[in-house]
Amino acid sequence: MKISVSATNPCHLYPMAVELAKLGALGVYYSGYPEWKLPDRDYVNVRAHSVRTTIVYGLLKHAPARLRPSARTLFRWQDHGFDQWVGRNLESCNFVHAMPGQALGTFRGAARRGVRRVLNHATGPVRDLVQTLEPEYERAGLRMLDFLPYDDAYFAREDEEYALADFHCAASTVVADQLAARGIPRTRIWTVPYGADERIFRQKGGRRPRDFRIAFAGQICLRKGMKTLLDALTQVGRADWQVHFFGGDSGETARDFAAYRGAPQILLHGAVSQQELADGLRQCSVMVLPSLEEGFGLVVPQSLNCGTPVIVSDRVGARDLVEHHENGSVFRAGDAGWLADELLFWERNTERPGKKYPWEAPARTLLAYSKAAW
């Protein structure tokens, strides 16, 4: 059994590929990211095509915005070029995984070679995402298309990718349910959660900090439910609490942060390394992910591996890992009062959860699905 994987950026698929390689089940990992930047390369058969990725990030980092194409145009050019390259260079295997938006050329090449195609979903169908988030952008006085790349051309491409897919690999039951609601037969949906690197995300020490510290990890944007968190903090009114934000700022939530008048102190750390994130999670009492849309949420197993409980909305796919009031809580998305209650609960409960979520288990689950389908 050989399973190949294609992804412009490492995201969740590269650590999955590493574990498949350890199980002797990886064909090739096709990378749009420079090979020398990938960890654990000794385990993995990598073929990289990173020219467009290098150009895109170079332009975004160094070229003035007025002199370069939009980020949406650049990333689409990057993904489509990489996808076409994989389709032309795909080697023999049983299955190939690719992500929506960068799977069309790959799947066409796979179909010509008799390779079964798996569309790998970190999020649910994009039409569902748009339907969920459009009202939030309107509330914030923003035009969603200025921030997200989803237009008629994207939907048409995604429809073709769906038509070519033999199977769909969903990150969670949340995504699986969305796919089923779109008419995908349950027999063609594999539900495979994600894990976290235990070498980085692990416990150090026993009980949580004496002072109550809340972590948020991820891009600060409307999709992540920032207003719900800020409203909950305002309701609890605790000046002795701290909230640590780890992640880049999209600029979408500037108005909500400017309007914040809550007592808990907010500290913005910006984008951080994986090691810095792990250190930050260990130093916090609880991690909160209040997203309005989140197919999984890698920070959930990362936080749990660090021994830090999690509070997630019911739209976060990684709720599948949460045992309510054991290692975390699940609240209704957008319900600031419910979130405030859960924060108060975890202030009173200082034991660290002990269960770990390594990548090996998801890889074995994926391999089992693949063998059964073959």
- Beta-strand content estimate: 15-25%
Strand order across the largest sheet: 3-2-1-4-5-6-7
Query: Ends: how far apart?
Result: 9 Å
Radius of gyration: 21 Å
Description:
This protein is α/β, with parallel strands linked by helices. Helices cover 39% and strands 16% of the residues. Strands 3-2-1-4-5-6-7 form a seven-stranded parallel β-sheet, sandwiched between helices. The protein has a six-stranded parallel β-sheet with strand order 10-9-8-11-12-13, sandwiched between helices. The longest helix is centred in the first third of the chain and has 19 residues, at 71-89. It is globular and about 60 Å long.
In short:
With 374 residues, this protein is an alpha/beta fold.
